[in-house]
Structure formats: C-alpha cells, structure tokens
C-alpha cells in the first residue's frame, strides 16, 4: 500500500507529504477516557506490586476514584459547552467530542460506578474458610472442581483483576460512541469486548456454565467482529477513507476526486451497501438485536450476575451510541436504503424478545430476553432519523441502564444453598418474606414494562413519539403490542412474588453491604426521578442530541 | 346589591354544613338553626325583591361573579349568579314555601331522633335548588340539578330502615339519572355548537344556528325536564317518592325538584322558540302527563299518592304551557307559583291528617274528620278549591290561562291540546273532590277497628300511641304545624287574583320570558265557561260516587281502567318488561359475547403467543454453531435486503 493510502487514513488532504507530523492530541477533551484507561493500567501494576491482602481495597479505591474523576471530567466538559456550541472533532479526526458522546459517556460512567459497587460486594456469598469472597472465581486459571481450585479457595484468593478489567471495558465503551473513524471504532470495540469475555468466565459458582458462556460470547463476538472489519474494509474501498465525515461526503456525492490507488472501487455503490450492512450487523450484534441476539440469554445467564448487569447496561449504551453515530453521521445519505431494513430488524427484535421471554423460567434469561425487546424499542427511536429521535434514544438508554443494573443487583440478593436462586419458581412468595426487596424489584419490573411514573414509561413514550413523528407509525403500533406482550411476563413475576404461597425450602434474601444497597438505591432513585419528573432530563438529552460532523 | 345573591345560597348551605358536621351536640337546637337559616334566605330574597322593584323594568337583571371555576383555554366556566325576574320568582317561592315547610317539620318530625339530620338535608335541598335557579350558565345549573337529585335521594330515603323507602329513593335517583344524562348531553351539544354554556351567549346566538342542532338540544333538555319534573315517560319515581316524610313530599312537589324542569324549559325559551319541533314534543309530553297523572290520581286510595298523581298532572299543565312558547311561559310560571301554594298546603294538610291518624294513609280508613280537625279541614278545603280552579281562587286564574293558551295554539293541535287540558280540569275536579269527601266527610270509618279503646277523641297529641294498632284519636295538630298551613291557604286563596288583576305577574315576568297574546278560536269567556262546566261535572260525579253513597272500606275491584290506574297505569310493569327484562337480556347477551367472543379472542391470542414462544424457544438450543448460523443467515438477509432496497 502506498504512502498516500496510509496517509489518507487520517486526513483528507490530497497533497502527499514525506514525513508524518506529530499528531495533535487535545488531552483535556479526551480526559474522561484517558483517566479511565490510565487507572486501568495502574490497576494492572497494583496486581503486580501490591500485597494480596491490600489489593481489593486498593483496586476498589482506584477504580472508584477513576470513574468518579472521569465523570467529573465529563460534567466539566459539558459545562464548558463541548456538548453544544463547542462540539468538535479531536485527536486528529479520530474522536468526536459532542453532545451525544458526552451524554453517553456520562451514562456509562455512572452505570459503571453502580456496577463497581456490585463487583465489590463481599457479603453475599458465605465466607469461604473465613475469607470474605465476592462473585468471582478464586483463581480463574484453576480448572473447575480441581484440587488447585480447592487450594485457591482455601487460601482465600480472589480475582481482584476484575477491577482493571472493568476499567478497560469502560475505557473502550467511552471511546466506542465517540469514535469518529472506523478504525477507532473497531479498536474500541475490541478494547471493551475482550475484558467482557474474560469477566464472563469468572463466576465463583457454576463455573462451567460461566466458562461455556464466555467461550460462546467470545466465538460469536469474534465472528461478529470479522463481519464488522470486513464491512470497514469495503467502506474504505468505497470511499477511500475511514473517516466518518469523508465517507459521508462520498455517499452524498460532494467529494468526487478519486484516489488513483482506489480508482477501481471508489464510488461503487455495491461496496457501500454491502459494507454498510456488515458494519451495522456488527453493531446490531452488540445491542443484541434479532437475529444477532442468540448469544444474549446464554451469556447473561452464565456470566457472574454483577457482570451481567454491567454488560446489559453499559454495552447497550455504548453500542447504541456507536450505531447512532454511524447511521446519523456516516450513512445519512443512504437512509432510504437502511431504514426499511432497520424497520424489519426493529420489528422482529421487539416481537421476538417479548414473545420468547414469555416461556422463560430463569430470571436472568427472562431479563436477557427483556433486554432484547428493549433493544427493539430503542431501534424504533433510532429509525426516526430526527433530532428528537436521537434525544429520545439518549434518554431511553440512561433510563434503561439504571433499571437494568438495579434489577440484576436485586437478583444477586436472592440466594439459596447453591448460590443465586435464579429459577423463577423459587421466587414464589418472595413478597411475603422480604417485602422490601420484592417491592424494589417490582419497581424495576414496572419500569421495564413501561408503567407510568417510572423511567421506563417516559423513555418508551419519548422513543415512540419520535418514531411516530418520523413517520414510523406502524412500528409504534407493533412496539405497543410487544410492550403489552412484555408486560405479561413482567407482571407475572410480580404476581408470583406477591400473590403466591412461599415455598418452604425457598431461597433467603441475603443482607448486602452498603455497596449493593447503594447500587440498588441509585437504580430506584433514577427510575423514580426520571419517571416522575422526566422533563429536565428530556431537555438535557434534547440539548445533547446533535452530532458534530 | 348584587353581592347579596350569593348569600341566598350561602345561608341554607351553611345550615346543611353545620347540621351535618355538627353532630349530636346540635340535636337540641338543630331544627331551629335549619329553619332560621331558611328564613334568613327568604329575608334576603325579600330585600333583593324590593331592590328589583325599585329598578326600571329593563334594568332588573343582576349578576354576581364569584370566581372563575374551570378556566381552561376555550373552556370557561364561571361561578356567576344571575338574578332576574324569573329567578327572583323562584327564589321567593323556594325560600318562602321552603321556610314554611321547615317550620311545619319542626312539629312533624318532633319525635324522630334523626331530626337534626333531616333539617340538614332540607337545607341542602334548598341550597341546591337555589343554585339551580340562580346559576348564570348551564354547567353551574347542572351542579344545582345534581345537588337537587342528591338531596331528594337522601330525603326520600330518610326512613331508610324501611326497605320500601330505600327502594323508592334508589328508584327516584336512577330515573333521575336518565334525565340528567339528557341535560349533560344538551350541555355538551351547546358547547360544541356555541363554544360556551353561559345563558347570555347561548340564548343570544340561537338565530345563527341550524334548526336541527337546536331541536336536538331542545329534546335533550326536555328529557332532562321529564326526569326532574316527573313527566311521561320518566314519571315513575314520583309516586314511590311518597315514602319520604310528608314535609319532603311537600317540598318536592311545591317548591323544589319538580319545578326544576319547568324552570329549565322556560329559561331556555329562546332556544325552544327557534326549534318548533322540540316545542311540539314539550306540549305533547305535557298534555299526556296531565291526563296520565289525573287518571292515576282518581284511583289511588293512599292520600299522598292521590296528591302525587295530582302534582304530576299539574306539572303537566305547566310543561304544556311552557311548550306553547311565549304565549304560555308566563302562565306556566304563574301556575307554578300558585300550585306551589296550594300543593304545599294540601300536602301539609295530608301530613296533619296522617299525624292525627297514626300515620294511616288509606283514605278508606278516614272519613268525617272535619269535626276533629277544623283548621286542617279549612286549609285543606281552600287548597282543594284552589286546585280545582274554583272561581276567584288562585288555581282558577292560572289554569284557565293555560287552557286558553292551549286552544290559542290554533288548528287541530290547538283543539287537541285544549281539549286535553279541559278534560284534565274535569278529572282534577273529580279526584280532588274524591279526596276531600273520603277524608273529611262521610261516616267515621276509622271507628270500625276491632280493638276496643276509648271512643272519645283526644285533643292531646297522641304521639306515644303512634305506630300502635289502637283506634286513632283524631286531633288537631300543634300550632307550629297549623300556622304554615294557614299561611299557605291564604296564598292559595288570594295568590291568583293578586297576580292576575292588572296583569301584574305578566308585566313582571315579561322582560325575561317575552310574551305574546294568544288568540283562541273561541272567546276567552267561552273557554272559562267550559272550564267551569267541566269542574261541576267532575265534582258532581265524585259526589255522586263518594258523597251520596257510603265509601266501602275495602276497595271494589273496579273497571279495567281503575285497576290499571291503581297500578300507576302499568308504568312499573312497562318499565319492568321493556327496560328491566330487556336490559337483563342485553346484559346476558353481552356477557355471553364477552365470554365466548372477546375472552375467546384474548385467550386464544395469548395461547397462540405462548405456543409461538415455546416453539421459538427451541431455536435457542445452546450450540454456538447454530447461533453462528443464525448470525450468518441474518447478515446475509441484511446485505441482500439492503441491496434489494437500492434495486427497488
């Protein structure tokens, strides 16, 4: 490949140059990502140098400080107007700093904070040989059921590496929705996916299931990444650039000067269409849209529940952010091509998620299918292709991620001898034995179902309104029908908890440390505040709803 | 002066609040509080009346804006009162007769331990009725309308321990709901037609509205009036409403409630004038009801039910007059006022008789009471003469005018309506004479009781004996009861003449209702003469049947018509067969459809979704390879579809 081609990865300037300039990096504007990645690296060093008994506290402290500082940086950037008037493209065109990016980064960071609390919870599992343990395997490398595992448990080992892994994943997720060229997008995708594959394999109990889930996730994720990468290559062939702005211009026809090295392919619409479809497919895999959703129930069920909560919330936020940017910034010129296809995807996702959830008997799988259905609802907002569509999706993501983290945090509390009691039959009569926990879970379920006075209703209303205004009324009708179907299984759990006789050998509700309580408390508070007084946040989302180009 | 208007309503409303909230500690004085506040309202009414008289004829409309009630863009409802000659007339009637009935109740309800509550309800009744006639828009009127419905429900069912009273209250309430529905639809139609429901704008814009619209509104208003005023076909509640204490009957029949329908029609006169079809319907309803009520009144042995039939019939006269348009509005109201006097007097008299006869209501067990109850006899007799239209008494003036106006309608309609009104006059004379003869004349049938007891009638109140099956000791009622009767009797005697001489009432009311002289096809004197002939015929027939011959203690079987009339001309049977049975069948059909069709569809959908879910679930087989195939297939479809979109 010639120097020209390499060069044109980064800039649209046509004149060839002999040396590469030192890239200009706006550290201040990239600070949220830099803080998190930096802290993750520090976490790796902690694993290497800090004595084992201090690691947990050090890691939790570092992670907490990093996430809080990054969130503060996001708020500071937004307050400086980077979300609106001063929105710009930083890092030599690789990263966009604009409203949607900052809003989603803020959401991811807050969600990650709540997730961090559930990661750090050490009171739920009974102490193993006098050592407080968390949800993660004592030693990831030991074979399940082997002597080395028993030795590790006896020694009171814990996998404190989960904290740097979490931070790496968060770092990737922060970049993902703000990536402004396709290579950055892909790198970010891998940066947040690989730690998640590892985290999925780390369950302390039911380790085989956990590892199976991780392998499945990894295989299918790699498969999807391959599609994405191939799509990126095709798009590069089409546009002669991986920069979002340039591709958009080529799609619109405003750039016509053809790179001689790519004279055979540039402007070939077949490349554009196939490439765009494959790129979008990779993103749809991450948001768990039908038919790219098959991994979701198995992985959600097998992964340690705190990881499931984090993954379900933050991955969805990051992936939808990236999807929005791709569709609104890169491909607006061909929206008449992708809109009908996305319509179909949204419809099968909403209906498929809602219908299959009906017959689920495991609470984690139920929530997995629920997350699929929600992906469909959010897609309805994405398809609107209006500013109100963007802001409604932003609002929905914020609302949804806190409900999800809170709900999975409650799942970690309901336990029996075998660890978490996730089979629905064991939840019968929970409301009689632990009214508070059951009531909190009922709030989350009502929010999932979109009942008024919860954030779920405000979000769903905003999304459907935007979709209807964008001309997608049939989509809204189908969305409401699948909401009705979905309401059935959410309410069924509530009925089960409150109106069924408790089973004598039923699970107990563990008393968590203030960490999990904080996570659940944040979830309930956000759910109710966004449900009762959503206007401020809707305004915030609508201010943040403009992409920089 | 305008600021006094709210006081009219506030006084009885305060009374209701104090009496109902105050609790048992007010038991001793509650009845006087209620009576005083009713009287206070009457005094305020008199002050306002004097003020109105002091103004020019065209300047007699006062309005008081209290507050903005429902201020929504495009939907403005204010609490504004309007006092003009029409509402002034009603205010004086309601508070005047109402206060007298309060006073009477002090004696009548003396031995009822829930007397305080009773007076609270009476005050509530007055307040609601005053709100109804003082409202400046239909929505506020509706509030009063519903308030009257509530108060009547509470009072008819006051003796709720009697199942018959509870049932009667429920019946009155339910039948009234039908009428209320009409009023609410009328108000909605007004809002869509005129964009407002204030009297001024609505009635001022009837000119630029299609007649069809106005007819629809008019018919709905008529339905409302039928409900409150007990007109055919919503008349069935009135007879049963006699289960309430007698003062309540007096209040419902004379001062409040049944007059509301007439008020509504007269108030909406401008609207009806522009909708002749609706007007015709009003006259038909009035004519049918006046005969219906009169026939029912002939067959009843229960003194209160006979009077109830009479009320229905007399209100029919008023509705008939109101349907005649500007020719009749003034006479409708005039008859309403005179009727208020004599019907209140008659009911209070009936209550006095019952009071003396151990609450016996069957006139076949009365007889010869004139000797024992002279005051009741005289006042009741004067009321009787007034209602049959004896020359010179108030019913003569007002009813005669209505009959004239009916003839003046002209054409076949005029003859039919006039004929009906005339026939009604004859029947009125018949049944009222019958009541009079059976109660106060003839042999003392109450002595035929088997239980031995002192023969000599006691002058003392026989309260402790009430409810016992002893032979009654007829006696005159206490002063607190007889004084209101005397006052009302005076009104019954002189009211009509006072209003009619010099056309006082006409000039007073004309600025509001408008008036237009009727021209009957025959001379007015001929009509009057015919009326008098009918009167004599009716009264003579009654005397021949009940005066000359002894009244049997057990009612004879009677003709088919008599038997039907005893059953209120089969109104309840009709309602039962058509409405109740029909409703039951409809409900059963709907329930069946709901179970089989709606539930079938719903459950079927649920079952098929569940089945689908079960089948789709099997796709999730746990093998990563099938998942990958699904993804690959999905990607292929995605790419193909995108390409296809472009190709299309």
From TrEMBL, chain A:
<feature type="transmembrane region" description="Helical">
    <location>
        <begin position="511"/>
        <end position="533"/>
    </location>
</feature>
<keyword id="KW-0874">Quinone</keyword>
<feature type="transmembrane region" description="Helical">
    <location>
        <begin position="30"/>
        <end position="50"/>
    </location>
</feature>
<feature type="transmembrane region" description="Helical">
    <location>
        <begin position="366"/>
        <end position="387"/>
    </location>
</feature>
<keyword id="KW-0520">NAD</keyword>
<comment type="subunit">
    <text>NDH-1 is composed of 14 different subunits. Subunits NuoA, H, J, K, L, M, N constitute the membrane sector of the complex.</text>
</comment>
<feature type="transmembrane region" description="Helical">
    <location>
        <begin position="435"/>
        <end position="455"/>
    </location>
</feature>
<protein>
    <recommendedName>
        <fullName>NADH-quinone oxidoreductase subunit N</fullName>
        <ecNumber>7.1.1.-</ecNumber>
    </recommendedName>
</protein>
<feature type="transmembrane region" description="Helical">
    <location>
        <begin position="215"/>
        <end position="239"/>
    </location>
</feature>
<keyword id="KW-1133">Transmembrane helix</keyword>
<keyword id="KW-1278">Translocase</keyword>
<feature type="transmembrane region" description="Helical">
    <location>
        <begin position="57"/>
        <end position="79"/>
    </location>
</feature>
<feature type="transmembrane region" description="Helical">
    <location>
        <begin position="155"/>
        <end position="176"/>
    </location>
</feature>
<feature type="transmembrane region" description="Helical">
    <location>
        <begin position="475"/>
        <end position="499"/>
    </location>
</feature>
<comment type="function">
    <text>NDH-1 shuttles electrons from NADH, via FMN and iron-sulfur (Fe-S) centers, to quinones in the respiratory chain. The immediate electron acceptor for the enzyme in this species is believed to be a menaquinone. Couples the redox reaction to proton translocation (for every two electrons transferred, four hydrogen ions are translocated across the cytoplasmic membrane), and thus conserves the redox energy in a proton gradient.</text>
</comment>
<keyword id="KW-0472">Membrane</keyword>
<dbReference type="GO" id="GO:0005886">
    <property type="term" value="C:plasma membrane"/>
</dbReference>
<dbReference type="GO" id="GO:0050136">
    <property type="term" value="F:NADH dehydrogenase (quinone) (non-electrogenic) activity"/>
</dbReference>
<feature type="transmembrane region" description="Helical">
    <location>
        <begin position="340"/>
        <end position="359"/>
    </location>
</feature>
<keyword id="KW-0812">Transmembrane</keyword>
<dbReference type="Pfam" id="PF00361">
    <property type="entry name" value="Proton_antipo_M"/>
</dbReference>
<keyword id="KW-0813">Transport</keyword>
From TrEMBL, chain B:
<dbReference type="GO" id="GO:0015990">
    <property type="term" value="P:electron transport coupled proton transport"/>
</dbReference>
<dbReference type="GO" id="GO:0012505">
    <property type="term" value="C:endomembrane system"/>
</dbReference>
<feature type="transmembrane region" description="Helical">
    <location>
        <begin position="522"/>
        <end position="544"/>
    </location>
</feature>
<dbReference type="GO" id="GO:0016020">
    <property type="term" value="C:membrane"/>
</dbReference>
<dbReference type="Pfam" id="PF00662">
    <property type="entry name" value="Proton_antipo_N"/>
</dbReference>
<feature type="transmembrane region" description="Helical">
    <location>
        <begin position="181"/>
        <end position="202"/>
    </location>
</feature>
<feature type="domain" description="NADH:quinone oxidoreductase/Mrp antiporter transmembrane">
    <location>
        <begin position="135"/>
        <end position="417"/>
    </location>
</feature>
<feature type="transmembrane region" description="Helical">
    <location>
        <begin position="32"/>
        <end position="54"/>
    </location>
</feature>
<feature type="transmembrane region" description="Helical">
    <location>
        <begin position="627"/>
        <end position="645"/>
    </location>
</feature>
<feature type="transmembrane region" description="Helical">
    <location>
        <begin position="278"/>
        <end position="299"/>
    </location>
</feature>
<feature type="transmembrane region" description="Helical">
    <location>
        <begin position="483"/>
        <end position="502"/>
    </location>
</feature>
<dbReference type="GO" id="GO:0003954">
    <property type="term" value="F:NADH dehydrogenase activity"/>
</dbReference>
<dbReference type="InterPro" id="IPR018393">
    <property type="entry name" value="NADHpl_OxRdtase_5_subgr"/>
</dbReference>
<dbReference type="GO" id="GO:0042773">
    <property type="term" value="P:ATP synthesis coupled electron transport"/>
</dbReference>
<feature type="transmembrane region" description="Helical">
    <location>
        <begin position="118"/>
        <end position="135"/>
    </location>
</feature>
<dbReference type="InterPro" id="IPR001750">
    <property type="entry name" value="ND/Mrp_TM"/>
</dbReference>
<feature type="transmembrane region" description="Helical">
    <location>
        <begin position="414"/>
        <end position="437"/>
    </location>
</feature>
<feature type="transmembrane region" description="Helical">
    <location>
        <begin position="246"/>
        <end position="266"/>
    </location>
</feature>
<protein>
    <submittedName>
        <fullName>NADH-quinone oxidoreductase subunit L</fullName>
    </submittedName>
</protein>
<dbReference type="Pfam" id="PF00361">
    <property type="entry name" value="Proton_antipo_M"/>
</dbReference>
<dbReference type="GO" id="GO:0008137">
    <property type="term" value="F:NADH dehydrogenase (ubiquinone) activity"/>
</dbReference>
<dbReference type="InterPro" id="IPR003945">
    <property type="entry name" value="NU5C-like"/>
</dbReference>
């Amino acid at each position: 490949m010639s120097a020209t081609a390499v060069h044109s990865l980064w800039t649209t300037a046509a004149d060839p140059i002999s040396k590469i300039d030192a890239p200009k990096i706006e550290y201040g504007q990239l600070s949220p990502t830099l803080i998190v990645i930096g802290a993750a690296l520090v976490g790796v060093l902690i694993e290497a140098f800090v004595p084992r008994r201090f690691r947990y506290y050090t890691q939790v402290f570092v992670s907490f400080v990093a996430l809080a500082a990054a969130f503060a940086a996001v708020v500071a950037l937004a307050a400086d107007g980077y979300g609106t008037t001063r929105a710009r493209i930083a890092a030599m065109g690789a990263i966009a700093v604009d409203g949607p990016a900052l809003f989603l980064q803020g959401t991811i960071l807050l969600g990650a904070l709540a997730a961090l609390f559930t990661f750090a919870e050490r009171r739920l599992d009974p102490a193993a040989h006098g050592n407080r343990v968390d949800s993660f395997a004592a030693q990831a490398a030991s074979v399940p059921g082997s002597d080395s595992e028993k030795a590790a448990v006896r020694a009171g080992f814990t996998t404190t590496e989960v904290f740097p892994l979490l931070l790496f994943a968060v770092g990737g997720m922060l970049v993902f929705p703000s990536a402004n060229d396709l290579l950055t997008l892909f790198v970010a995708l891998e940066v947040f996916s690989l730690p998640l594959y590892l985290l999925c394999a780390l369950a302390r109990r039911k380790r085989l299931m956990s590892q199976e889930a991780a392998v499945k996730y990894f295989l299918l994720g790699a498969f999807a990444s391959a599609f994405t990468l191939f799509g990126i290559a095709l798009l590069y062939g089409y546009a002669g650039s991986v920069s979002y702005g340039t591709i958009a211009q080529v799609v619109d026809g405003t750039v016509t000067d053809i790179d001689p090295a790519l004279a055979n392919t540039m402007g070939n619409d077949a490349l554009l269409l196939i490439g765009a479809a494959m790129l979008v497919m990779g993103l749809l895999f991450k948001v768990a849209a039908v038919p790219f959703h098959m991994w979701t129930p198995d992985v959600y069920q097998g992964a340690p529940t705190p990881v499931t909560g984090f993954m379900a919330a933050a991955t969805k936020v990051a992936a939808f952010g990236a999807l929005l940017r791709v569709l609104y910034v890169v491909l607006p010129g061909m929206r008449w091509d992708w809109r009908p296809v996305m319509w179909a995807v949204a419809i099968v996702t909403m209906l498929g998620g809602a219908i299959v959830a009906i017959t689920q008997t495991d609470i984690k799988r139920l929530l997995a299918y629920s997350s699929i259905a929600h992906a469909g609802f959010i897609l309805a907002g994405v398809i609107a292709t209006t500013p109100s569509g963007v802001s409604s999706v932003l609002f929905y993501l914020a609302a949804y991620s806190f409900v999800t983290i809170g709900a999975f945090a409650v799942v970690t509390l309901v336990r029996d001898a075998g660890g978490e009691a996730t089979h629905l039959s064991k939840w019968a009569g929970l409301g009689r034995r632990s009214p508070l926990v059951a009531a909190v879970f009922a709030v989350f379920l009502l929010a999932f179902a979109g009942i008024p006075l919860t954030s779920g209703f405000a979000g769903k209303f905003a999304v459907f309104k935007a979709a209807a205004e964008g001309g997608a009324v049939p989509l809204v009708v189908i969305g409401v029908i699948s909401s009705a179907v979905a309401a059935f299984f959410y309410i069924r759990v509530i009925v089960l908890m409150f109106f069924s006789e408790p089973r004598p050998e039923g699970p107990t509700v563990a008393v968590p440390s203030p960490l999990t309580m904080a996570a659940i408390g944040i979830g309930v508070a956000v759910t109710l505040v966004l449900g009762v007084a959503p206007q401020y946040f809707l305004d915030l989302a609508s201010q943040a709803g403009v992409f920089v180009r | 002066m305008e600021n006094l208007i709210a006081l009219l309503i506030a006084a009885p409303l305060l009374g209701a609040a104090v009496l109902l909230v105050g609790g048992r500690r007010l038991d001793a004085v509650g009845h006087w509080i209620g009576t005083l506040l009713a009287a206070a309202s009457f005094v305020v009414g008199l002050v306002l009346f004097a003020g109105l008289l002091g103004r020019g004829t065209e300047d007699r409309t006062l309005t008081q804006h209290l507050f903005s009630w429902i201020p929504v863009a495009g939907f403005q409802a204010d609490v504004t009162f309007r006092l003009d000659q029409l509402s002034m007339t009603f205010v004086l009637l309601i508070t005047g007769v109402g206060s007298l009935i309060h006073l009477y109740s002090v004696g009548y309800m003396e031995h009822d331990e829930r007397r305080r509550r009773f007076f609270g309800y009476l005050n509530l009744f007055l307040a609601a009725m005053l709100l109804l006639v003082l409202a400046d828009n239909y929505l506020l009127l509706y509030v009063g309308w519903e308030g009257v419905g509530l108060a009547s429900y509470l009072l008819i069912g006051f003796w709720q321990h009697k199942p018959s009273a509870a049932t009667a209250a429920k019946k009155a309430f339910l039948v009234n709901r039908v009428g209320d529905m009409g009023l609410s639809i009328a108000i909605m139609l007004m809002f869509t037609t005129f964009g407002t429901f204030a009297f001024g704008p609505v009635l001022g814009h009837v000119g630029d509205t299609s007649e069809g619209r106005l007819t629809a509104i008019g018919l709905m208003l008529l339905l409302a009036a039928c409900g409150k005023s007990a007109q055919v076909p919503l008349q069935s509640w009135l007879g049963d409403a006699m289960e309430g204490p007698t003062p309540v009957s007096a209040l419902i029949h004379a001062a409040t409630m049944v007059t509301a329908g007439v008020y509504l029609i007269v108030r909406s006169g401008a609207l009806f004038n522009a909708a002749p079809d609706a007007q015709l319907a009003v006259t038909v309803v009035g004519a049918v009801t006046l005969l219906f009520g009169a026939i029912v009144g002939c067959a009843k042995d229960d003194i209160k039910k006979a009077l109830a039939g009479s009320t229905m019939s007399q209100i029919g006269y008023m509705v008939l007059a109101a349907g005649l348009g500007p020719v009749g509005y003034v006479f409708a109201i005039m008859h309403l006022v005179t009727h208020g006097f004599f019907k209140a007097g008659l009911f209070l008299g009936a209550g006095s008789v019952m009071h003396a006869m151990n609450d016996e209501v069957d006139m076949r067990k009365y007889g010869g009471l004139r000797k024992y109850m002279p005051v009741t006899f005289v006042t009741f007799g004067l009321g009787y003469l007034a209602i049959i239209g004896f020359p010179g008494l108030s019913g003569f003036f007002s009813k005669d005018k209505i009959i004239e106006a009916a003839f003046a309608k002209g054409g076949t309609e005029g003859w039919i309506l006039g004929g009906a009104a005339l026939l009604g006059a004859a029947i009125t004379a018949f049944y009222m004479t019958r009541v009079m003869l059976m109660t106060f004349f003839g042999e003392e049938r109450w002595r035929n009781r088997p239980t031995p007891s002192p023969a000599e009638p006691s002058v003392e109140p026989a309260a402790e004996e009430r409810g016992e099956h002893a032979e009654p000791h007829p006696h005159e009622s206490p002063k607190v009861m007889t004084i209101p009767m005397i006052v009302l009797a005076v009104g019954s005697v002189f009211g009509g003449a006072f209003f009619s001489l010099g056309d006082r009432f006409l000039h007073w009311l004309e600025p509001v209702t408008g008036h237009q002289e009727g021209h009957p096809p025959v001379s007015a004197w001929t009509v009057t003469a015919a009326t008098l002939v009918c009167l004599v015929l009716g009264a003579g027939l009654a005397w021949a049947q009940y005066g000359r011959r002894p009244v049997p203690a057990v009612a004879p079987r009677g003709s088919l018509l008599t038997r039907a009339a005893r059953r209120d001309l089969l109104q309840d049977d009709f309602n039962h067969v058509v409405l109740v049975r029909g409703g039951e069948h409809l409900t059963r059909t709907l329930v069946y459809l709901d179970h089989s069709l709606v539930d079938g569809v719903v459950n079927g959908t649920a079952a098929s979704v569940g089945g689908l879910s079960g089948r789709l679930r099997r796709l999730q087989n746990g093998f990563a390879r099938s998942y990958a195939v699904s993804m690959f297939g999905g990607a292929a479809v995605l790419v193909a579809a995108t390409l296809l979109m472009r190709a299309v």
